[in-house]
Amino acid sequence: MWPSQLEKVKQLHSQMLVRHGVMLVGPTGGGKSTVRNLLQRALSNRHRKGAVNTFSLNPKCVKLGELYGETNPNTFEWTDGLIALAARQFAKEWLIMDGPVDTLWVENLNTVLDDSKVLCLANGERINVGHGMRLLFEVDDLSQASPATVSRCAMVYMDPVDLGWQPFVRTWLCHLPRDLPESGRTHLSALFDHSVDRGLAFVKLYRKHLMLPTPELSLIKCMCSILSALFDFMTKHGGFGNPGEIVTSVRL
């Protein structure tokens, strides 16, 4: 585990002990999902009698009625939404909102984020949320969040600059084909350490964006995908055999 990730895991755990609503804030590539998964695994291993379960959804990919519930205009029958179903069925679970915070849907959770922890539905029903349930929001920014929502949640900010590209590359190297000799992995790691920071600085200085800037980690992922495709081709056509093939074939 990377030291910066370990520190964020500790921060997330300490905040979840204080508040039942926590926001993981930061741009893409900061490791929000990884930190959450690490804490979930750690708590599950610690409390073996009851593993930590999660219910994850993107609030922006469904309609508001599908999120909280709605009444059929023809039959006047009420149908629970995803959040209402989770609140009814689970007492100890992490409800993860992995998507942009929007006032259209997040304001309805203010009563849940209060100390009363009550979910108020449009049909007048009130659902008491279990004391073991936690609400986690994974968001890029809080530009659309109201002060009422922000004041009810704990915050853990994660910056991709703090994490860097090294953890992703180290993980990628571990998942390369087994035919790749250890000397080849070592050489690839040295090439990344020697060239990536210089390349990112060059791109940042001289490129002209036609649209929104691309995150640096996305560039690294693209490069690793190209190299993976090259290694798959080499594996299908005779394997690596000679470790010197990596040295002569790869130039970053």
UniProtKB/TrEMBL annotation:
<feature type="domain" description="ATPase dynein-related AAA">
    <location>
        <begin position="21"/>
        <end position="153"/>
    </location>
</feature>
<protein>
    <recommendedName>
        <fullName>ATPase dynein-related AAA domain-containing protein</fullName>
    </recommendedName>
</protein>
<dbReference type="GO" id="GO:0051959">
    <property type="term" value="F:dynein light intermediate chain binding"/>
</dbReference>
<dbReference type="GO" id="GO:0005524">
    <property type="term" value="F:ATP binding"/>
</dbReference>
<dbReference type="Pfam" id="PF07728">
    <property type="entry name" value="AAA_5"/>
</dbReference>
<dbReference type="InterPro" id="IPR011704">
    <property type="entry name" value="ATPase_dyneun-rel_AAA"/>
</dbReference>
<dbReference type="GO" id="GO:0007018">
    <property type="term" value="P:microtubule-based movement"/>
</dbReference>
<dbReference type="GO" id="GO:0045505">
    <property type="term" value="F:dynein intermediate chain binding"/>
</dbReference>
<dbReference type="InterPro" id="IPR027417">
    <property type="entry name" value="P-loop_NTPase"/>
</dbReference>
<dbReference type="GO" id="GO:0016887">
    <property type="term" value="F:ATP hydrolysis activity"/>
</dbReference>
<dbReference type="GO" id="GO:0030286">
    <property type="term" value="C:dynein complex"/>
</dbReference>
<dbReference type="InterPro" id="IPR026983">
    <property type="entry name" value="DHC"/>
</dbReference>
